[in-house]
Amino acid sequence: MSGAATRALGMAKRLFRNKGALAGFAFIATVTLLAAFAGFLPFDPLAQNIVESLEGPSAAHWFGTDELGRDIMVRVVYGARTSLLTAAGAVAIAAAIGIPMGLVAGFFGGWRDAVLMRLVDVLLALPGILFAMALIAVIGRSQMAALVAVGVHGIPGFARITRAQVLSLRKRDFVTAVEALGASSTYSMFRTVLPNSWSPILVQVVVLSSVAILLEAALAFLGVGIPPPTPSWGEMLRTGKSYLYEAPYYAVLPGLVLTLTILSLDTIGRALSVVLEDRQMIGGDTKLERVP
Amino acid sequence: MKRRHVLASGLLGALHLAAPALLTGNQASAQQPQVRGGRPLRVGILQDMTNFDPQSFSSVNFPLIKNLYDSLLEYTPTGEAVPSLATAWTIAPDNQSVTVTLRENVKFHSGAPMNADAVAATLVKAAHPQRGRNVYATMSFIKDWTVVNPTTIRLNFNAPAPARQVTDLLQFISVLDPAGIENIDNRPAGTGAYMLAERVVGQRIRMVANPNYWRERQPVCNELVLTIFGEDAAASAALESGAVDIVYGGTARSAVRLRAAGYQLIQGPGPLVQVFRINTTRGPFRNAKFRQAFNYLIDRAAILRVGYAGLGEVTALPWAPASPAADPSYNTTYAFNLDRGRAMLQESGLTAAQMSDWKLLTNGGDEPSTLISQVVQSTLARVGVNIQLDLKQGSEYVDALLQGRFEATFGGVGNIQKFPSRLTTNSIYRTANNPVLGEPHPHPEYVAAIERVNRTFGTGPEVKAAYDNLNRVLVESAFGIATNTYDVGLTVAARNLGGFTLDIDNMIVCRTIGFTG
Question: In this predicted complex, what is the ipTM?
Fold first, then answer.
């Protein structure tokens, strides 16, 4: 087993000693698997049966049916696709832009740092939900629009965390040593500083995933998310709230799944943070490579 | 001159007495219970008003109009005209004018007398394209008017007009105090049973009884308080907790739930008709067969159930049951029939790709519209027409709707219980300057059918023939597929209220409402 694999396995073992993180991981894994393989199940989230509308949970429909007679559980499963895809896409966008911004700003400092951080300040000044709604108003309602909006909202977080980490590493002896051996700035940045900055970034990935799912649900709840009939947890909450008297399960059950997902991601994020902090404290995070 | 109507004002009392028999919720007895005031009548509404102008016929102003103003005449729930501020109206034998006799000793809230000059001043406003607001279009057949004496005014028409068209206008005209017309948006100036006492924007409107009101023993309650809740659930909860006596303008679903809980549900005779509006100048809808297939492809019963909790009726024509042109046989002929619809799609000669090349514009801010659009989307998928919804919100949707930037969309149509040509006040049904279908009108047979209705007088078979012709043309041209009636202004009331007066436009009339216990 390689050193990296051994380190990852050790970290996973420490992570799953936390029972909350283990439960959270199990829940997220279940939701992800169901979402990924939903297409193989013999259920159609769009199939209407108006005669069976707003029926309570039963053996035939575990979560009951909605106002169009659609199976709520099937829609929750397909809604997980929407939420997880949005989260993954948003994290990818935010990381792809935010990490290089923070890296350059922290490594070079000076005018680059000033310009990039003012840009981040501008993004931070925009309330996430309002920014997302404005963007959707311009480019229209779609999953891509929600994904981009949430992703842009996540850029400042990655940029600031990466910058802070780079600033703390920039003057460390091992970085100075690599540069003294003649390494270029690019090498030093990407091969020396960045690999040693992953810990807080990894935690940020988990945190932003939960924020992204919540924000996507909020957009759908406000009526500017993914248009119906595509299943979405937020859309189900939005519609379900109108039926709280007649069919409380309609809003409560999708809301429960959404809550558990957020709770699971936050629990994993917290446990991961503790594990990575412990690892840094014992020096296990410093990674050096031979300079070519 | 032939006299169409000279009825004593007591007939309004008869209407008042008959109203409970029309209650569709907890069926009240035919005998109207004795009602009394003694405490404020508290009404929960969902939206604040926009202005105090009765010519601004927006549903958000419905809680005010019949309480602050009186119109020249009223309709019974069955569509019969009865006196109000006008005691008589006589249409000339050549149908070229109407002479209106006004009630004497009626005063505005300001104390000024209501007379023919006031009616003339009101007509001046109504005839102005902007200031006349929603009444302007109905004034189109009026050429001019003459004040004969303080209690008589004569309105002259551009061309002979049917009696129902004339009474529709007189029912539409709420007489305004000439001194208050300039400031009518901010300050009411009517003769109504209640006078404005206080308005707190976004919260409440409080009215007190007009001490000089001309109807005897009305209003029953000395104070009327309209409280704005914004959310339907909040208004319903207020009713259930006893914080309000009535919820006006709530959703059908809440109304059905409250009815089941023992509250009174009052449905008026003036519903709207939901119409699947088709822009026949765009995409596959240029093809007549493709359009006509939608007469069979829309599951009206499902739409009524999902969108309106079953309150209303399915209809294949854009008329309320009280309309003289209503013809229930069309509901059977054009009932939901997938096989027939599929066959007509094939007859259209369009490819599957062409048939799916359009989007259904949907009002994302209106829950029933979003639901019924999904019902249509699902039904069309069953016959191989796969479309997407184009959800727009608020003004963005209204702009697209009124400027015809859509292939198809659902939209409510009003004035369907009155003279059939009043249908043309709705954008999709306009015969001239149609904002959706453009100029020249792409369906001249429809324009001719409306013109025939406008030029056919009397009550004989020729009138029915004109209506039958219009109905046939509506279905064949298929630019508007009616689906169901639904209620605006649903009234849900506490068990201890009585004395409801049904208004032909479903506005709430509070002057007769009182407490039974």
Answer: 0.76
Chain B contacts of A75, Cβ < 8 Å?
none
Class of domain A6-48+61-282 (CATH, top level)? mainly alpha
Predicted structure pTM score: 0.82
A31: DSSP letter: H
Which residues in chain A touch residue B378, judged by CB atoms under 8 angstroms apart? 46, 48, 68, 229
- Residue spans of the domains in chain A: they are 6-48+61-282
Angle between the N-to-C axes of helices A128-139 and A198-221, in degrees from 0 to 180, rounded to the nearest 10: 60
Out of A65-69, B30-34, B183-187, least confident range: B30-34
The mean pLDDT of chain B is 91
Do A291 and A61 form a contact (C-beta atoms < 8 A)?
A: no
Hey, are the CB atoms on B377 and A229 less than 8 Å from each other? yes
Give the pairing type, strands B264-266 and B491-493. Answer: antiparallel
Q: Do A68 and B365 touch (CB under 8 A)?
A: no
> Could you tell me the CA-to-CA distances from B61 to A273, B67, B172 in Å, in that order?
58, 11, 14
Instruction: Provide the pLDDT for residue B32.
Output: 61
Residue B500 near residue B269, CB atoms below 8 Å: no
Q: At residue B269, what are phi and psi to the nearest 5 degrees?
A: -85, 5
The torsion angles phi and psi of A93, rounded to 5 degrees, stand at -65, -50
- Name the minimum distance, in Å, from the CA of A241 to any CA of chain B: 10
Whether the predicted pLDDT of B10 surpasses 70: no
Task: Number of A to B CB contacts under 8 A, please give it.
Answer: 45
Q: What is the DSSP letter of A114?
A: H
Q: Do B370 and A246 touch (CB under 8 A)?
A: no
Q: From CA A2, how far away is CA B60, in angstroms rounded?
A: 72
CB contact under 8 A, A223 and B365: yes
Residues in chain A: 292
Tokens of B233: 């659930």
Q: Which residues contact B145 (CB under 8 A, 6 or more apart)?
A: B120, B123, B153, B154, B155, B156
Q: Are strands B204-209 and B408-413 parallel, antiparallel or unpaired?
A: unpaired
Three-state DSSP class for residue B410: strand
Q: B36 is written with which tokens?
A: 């009394």
| Low-confidence spans in chain A with pLDDT less than 70 | 1-4, 278-292
Structural domains present in chain B: 2-32+50-188 (3.90.76.10), 272-486 (3.10.105.10)
Looking at A37-142, list the stretches that DSSP marks H as alpha helix, in order from N- to C-terminal side: 72-108, 110-125, 128-139
Is B167 in contact with B179 (CB distance < 8 Å)?
Answer: no
Write the CA distances from B505 to A251, B145, B206, B464, B508, integer angstroms: 36, 26, 23, 24, 9
- DSSP conformation letters of A135-156: HHHHH-SSHHHHHHHHHHHHHH
Strands (E), B46-141: 73-75, 81-83, 86-91, 97-102
d(CA B284, CA B247): 44
CA distance A209 to chain B (A): 27
In 3-state terms chain B splits into helix, strand, coil percentages (rounded to 5) of 35, 20, 45
Distance CA B428, CA B480 (A): 7
Give me the amino acid identity at B381. A
Residue B171 CA to residue A152 CA, distance in Å, equals 57
Q: Do B375 and A48 touch (CB under 8 A)?
A: yes
| Residue B271 scores a pLDDT above 70 | yes
- C-alpha distance from A246 to closest chain B C-alpha (Å): 8
Q: Pick from B365, B371, B389: which is nearest to A67 by CB?
A: B371
Mind listing the pLDDT tens digit for each residue in B43-85?
Answer: 999 999 999 999 998 889 999 999 999 999 999 988 899 999 9
Average pLDDT of span B377-398: 92
